Amino acid sequence: MNRLHPILFTLACLLALSPLTVHAETLTDQTIRSFISSLEALQGMEDEFEELTDDLSTEENAAEMPDLSRIFSSSVEKMKGHDMYDQLEEVVQQHGFSNAEQWGKAGDRIFHAWSALEMGKQSGEMNQEMAKAMEEIDNNPHMSEAQKQQMREMMGGAMSAYEQAANAPEADKRAVRPHMDALRAATGSDL
């Protein structure tokens, strides 16, 4: 089955929605390949991760928006203390990472660059859709001015998040671009 286990699949779908800090270390071709290979290895552990997914789901506050710029590294932090953490660490070390934290940081950068590349392809269409939605809000006779203002603020927040997600470092985007098909295959994503 070409699907990523539930935690990583969820993480991949969320994508990084805010810019990462400047990285001194170059994101290398080997790092990206190792990360993809580790995702593929983790697919085989999907059933074992189900219990952890349930545990983490009950621990998280559904109203809180996760820090999407650290989607992998924050998940690694949440896994500490769970039995699966050691298994994750073993898998990522087999794929050349020194520890789960290094793997998480690499994943954050890779998925941020990947999402920026994908969003770049769709930016014109997205801008048109957002403009149309704003126009529909402004012209809706069934909404009060306060409701319209609230919707405008929500749309503005969504546009800001979209723009931030598209703002990955150019060097990271160049490094990730040749691996986009492999990332899609490893995550079972239609991004």
Order of helices and strands: HHHHHHHHH
Structural class: mainly alpha
**Number of helices, where a helix is a run of at least 4 consecutive DSSP H or I residues:** 9
Query: What is the CA-based Rg, rounded?
Result: 18 Å
E-strand count = 0
| Alpha-carbon distance between the two ends | 18 Å
Helix proportion of residues, in percent? over 70%
Instruction: Calculate the mean pLDDT score and round it.
Output: 77
Biggest pleated sheet: none
Poorly predicted runs: 1-24
Biased composition (Basic and acidic residues): 170-182
Signal peptide: 1-24
Keywords: Signal
Region (Disordered): 162-191
What's the short version?
With 191 residues, the protein is mainly α. It contains nine helices and no strands.
Descriptive account of the structure:
Residues 162-191 are annotated as: Disordered. Keywords: Signal. Residues 1-24 form the signal peptide. The protein is mainly α and 191 residues long. Helix content is 70%, strand content 0%. It has nine helices and no strands.
